[in-house]
Structures are given as C-alpha cells and as structure tokens.
Design brief:
- The protein is an alpha/beta fold and 296 residues long.
- It has 3 domains: 5-96 and 192-212, D-Maltodextrin-Binding Protein, domain 2 (3-Layer(aba) Sandwich), CATH 3.40.190; 103-180, 3-Layer(aba) Sandwich (D-Maltodextrin-Binding Protein, domain 2), CATH 3.40.190; 226-289, 2-Layer Sandwich (Double Stranded RNA Binding Domain), CATH 3.30.160.40.
- The protein contains 11 helices and 13 strands.
- It has helices spanning 13-28, 41-44, 50-53, 61-68, 124-133, 146-154, 165-170, 202-208, 214-229, 277-287, 290-295; strands at residues 5-9, 33-37, 74-78, 90-94, 103-107, 118-120, 138-140, 160-164, 179-180, 193-198, 238-245, 248-256, 263-271.
- The protein has a 5-stranded mixed β-sheet, with helices on both faces. A 5-stranded mixed β-sheet has the order 7-6-8-5-9.
- Helix 5 (124-133) links the parallel strand 6 and strand 7.
- The longest helix has 16 residues, at 13-28.
C-alpha cells in the first residue's frame, strides 16, 4: 500500500492523541498515514448538555460523512460515542486493546461527601448513578474536552467532577487526588477505540484486521449489544462492562433512573463462546422494568 491512508479525527486533544496512537499501529504493519481533523457538532455546541441534544452520533456523524464522501479512508472514534448501528457503507476496521474502562471522581473541595454537595457532569449515566449513591447531592452541567473541563472545575464552586480514566491517562492529566469509582458501571465500550473504514475497500480492511484485539472486540460487542437491545443512545443512563478470564466472560450491566430513584443491576458469568450475552442481560432487565427507568 504505497499511498498514504487519510485518517479522519475530531480535533480535540484526546481525539488527536488517539488518532496519532492509531497511526503508530498502522506504521507497525507498514502503512503510512496522515491525519485529517474534522470538527463535530458535539464539539461545536458546548453550551448544551449532551442529553438535551437529543441525537445519537453527535460526535461521529461529520466523521462518517467525510468517510462516505471519501475525504478520508479511515476514522478513529472513542467507541462509546459511536451509535450501536454503523451507517450503511461503513465497516469496522479494527478495535485495538482497550485502555482503562473506569470512571474517576476528581475532588475540587475536601468536603465533597457532605450533604448538598454539587457534582459537575454532563453525562446522564454518571449523574444518575451518582444520585443513586449520593441522593442528597446536586448535579450541575459541565461541557468541553478534557483540558477544558478540568479548567472549568478548578474555576467553579463545584465539589468535584466525574471523568473517564482513559482520557485523563492518555493526556497525562490524571490528577493525583483522583478517586477510581469501582462501583460506577461505565458506558458501554468506555476506554475502547474504534477504527472504521469503507465497506467498499475490503483490501484495506483486511490489512488492518491483524491489529484487532480479539478479547476487547468480544467484550465491547457484548456491551454494545446490551445497549442496542435496551434501545438506548450514548446519553441514556445505561452502563455495561464485560471482562474475560480464560473461558469465562463476566458481564455487568445496569440501568438507573435519571434522578437516581432506582437502579436495576445485572451481574453474571457466561461461557465466552456464548454470542448473545448482552442481549440476554438486557432482556432480563427489561423484564424487571428497565424501559420505565430509561424513559424516566
């Protein structure tokens, strides 16, 4: 493959880090590439909370368009931002090994655990799970990329914020006082990167498949199947995480009322060869009333 592969990416610091990291993976198999930054509507509309935008794919649709119009050959996404159904004509190229999956809490004041504390997040899932754990706390919106949110937090009266560990670590911006939220169920595919290409370019897709991490790909597919079955977008109060040890896949999924009034939790072990784990988990929660919680 002599010509350079054009990689579409959002222009944020984290997105560029991820795209450059993917470049090194391509280089390892002899594929040269260049980055093509593309602004997304999600980045442009910083004044609106994510859950008020009312659309799936707010961080991906411009990148998908650039791919379909052949302005770029590949696109790098944070997988948790990608709708569970890829647009027609777009195919999965590879999913590299996942980074940290957890959410972390970044305190801004030492008394953050007191009643009535204010926690900053624009994620409906994080807000719902936090309210469930801390029913007396208030939630305030905070938007922007990783450096912007950290700056906004430091200049605010909020007691702290919740962010993805992966993004903070990738940018070497994880504060020393960050607290890993082991009890919070992350967004489906959190910490994972997705690289997509055109279905009409099977030669390129085939060349890139060797970069796929099979274990990560299985886990995120089950998490996204859980989300798809529940018919929730990336703004829904739905969490899911899968891990594999030997021949066992451990799956954890949850749906939380947006005000934190109730939470439905699913935890079970499966044979890793089972193909419908996410769907099975989601259907069990739907039988227990998950739809009512999602609709709020």
């Amino acid at each position: 493959m002599n010509s350079r592969v054009r990689i579409g990416t959002r222009g944020s610091a984290l997105a560029l880090w991820q795209a450059r990291w993917v470049q090194t993976r391509l280089q390892s198999i002899g594929i040269k590439s260049e980055l093509v930054p593309i602004e997304s509507s999600g980045d442009q509309q910083l004044q609106k909370p994510l859950y008020q935008m009312g659309v799936q794919g707010i961080f991906t649709k411009e990148l998908d368009t650039a791919l379909l119009t052949k302005e770029v050959d590949l696109v790098v996404h944070s997988m948790k931002d990608v709708p569970t159904q890829l647009p027609e004509g777009i195919a999965l190229a590879f999913v590299p090994q996942r980074g940290p999956h957890a959410d972390v809490f970044i305190p801004n004041r030492p008394d953050w655990e007191k009643e009535g504390s204010t926690i900053a997040t624009s994620s409906l899932r994080r807000a719902a799970q936090w309210r469930y754990a801390y029913p007396t706390h208030c939630i305030t919106d905070i938007r922007g990329n990783v450096p912007t949110r950290l700056k906004k937090l430091s200049e605010s009266n909020a007691h702290g914020t919740i962010m993805a560990q992966a993004g903070l670590e990738r940018l070497d911006m994880l504060p020393s006082n960050a607290i890993t939220l082991d009890w919070m169920v992350p967004a489906p595919a959190q910490g994972a990167i997705l690289v997509t290409g055109l279905a009409s370019k099977p030669e390129l897709l085939s060349a890139l498949h060797k970069l796929n991490d099979a274990e990560t790909a299985i886990c995120v597919e089950q998490e996204r199947s859980f989300l798809r079955t529940l018919e929730g977008g990336c703004t829904a109060p739905i969490g899911a995480h899968a891990t594999i040890k030997g021949d066992v896949l451990y799956f954890k999924g949850c749906v939380t009322h947006k005000e934190g009034k109730e939470q439905l939790l699913f935890e079970e072990e499966f044979d890793v060869a089972e193909e419908n784990i996410g769907r099975i988990a989601a259907e069990q929660l739907l039988e227990r009333g998950a739809k009512k919680l999602i609709d709020g």
